[in-house]
Amino acid sequence: MQNKENTYKGYVTRVEPERQFGFIETENGCTYFFAIDNKGERKRKQLGLMDKIHKFCSGDEVEFQVRTTRKDKNKIEAYSLKFIRNERRQKLIDEAILNDSMLGYIKLIDNESFFIKHISTHVFIPLSISAWETDLEEVYNKRIDKLVKFRLIETHQIDKLKAVLTDVRFLPEYYELQSAINNDFILSATITGKNSKGLFAEILNGRIEGFIPISKNPKELELMKFEKFRKGSVAKVRVKCLFDNRKASLILAY
After folding, report:
1. What is the percent of the chain where pLDDT is above 90?
2. DSSP, res 158
3. Looking at residue 2, what is its pLDDT?
4. Is 4-85 a domain of CATH 2.40.50.140?
5. Hey, is 41 helix, strand or coil?
6. Phi/psi class of residue 215: alpha, beta or left (left: φ > 0; alpha: ψ in -120 to 50)?
7. Nearest CA among 102, 131, 132, 130 for reference residue 117
8. What pTM value is reported for the model?
9. Phi/psi at 203 (nearest 5 deg)?
10. Chain-wide mean pLDDT for the chain?
């Protein structure tokens, strides 16, 4: 059982789930590193010290204790975290519902990951950067610690929130294909390969890769149409949607 005299309270500012660590900030401005201890969490649950294992995310209000790290006796880390609530992240979602855009600061973490620090809740949200975007130096790197406008995406799961800037710039192909989607344009696609799930293709003169999926339960007529295509064949297609990896989902325009 925790000794309340040595228990602190703070907010999780950010979590790196792949690297199994995160950071807590207290009301007086102190920042503590913590390691995600999945094994310890399971043990505490088995002992009845917690109702369920919590997946920590930014905005979590927590109780914790501190100790010197095992690797460096001059450094302090937080441990034995206990989740209290997450009013900050819910406040962030509520604000996103009411507003088309919000304000926050661009943060670069470990020289590799961009985050938004929301101006009022101080919650860190990972920035989602699409492969369709351009001018990344101007849009991101030159605005680190600068105030920008953003909006939330993937709000259906409170621990998986992501953010996108409202003034990103896209490649010309992105706008061309969005216009094709909005206006139901028919494009020419060159077949580059096939498998049991559909056809691989290129559009816009080979600048963009796409895939034409076959139906889950295709009828004989559809199977015959897919069968006639060979590598190098030209097909008439419509653009169904664009993926963040700079590829497109296509459908045959019969």
Report:
1. 58
2. G
3. 45
4. yes
5. helix
6. beta
7. 102
8. 0.74
9. -130, 170
10. 89
